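S.,

Sequence below, as promised.
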Amino acid sequence: MSEPVHRRRGSLIGTVKAVLWGFLGIRRNADYQKDIERLNPLHIMAVGVVMAFLFVGALILLVNWVAG
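The prediction came back faster than expected:
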């Protein structure tokens, strides 16, 4: 039986890599299943929100630089 969701202790690097693969939309099913078993869903959501804000901020900076 797998570990309870709130007790999962995936690494920060593993969580960031999983979120980046999710942003790209490509991931092997075996790796996806490993991530589901290993990573805490709350950590994935937190990293996803932070990375989304960073992405939007980078786009805003790029547009200002090109249009400026």
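The chain has three helices and no strands.

Coffee later?
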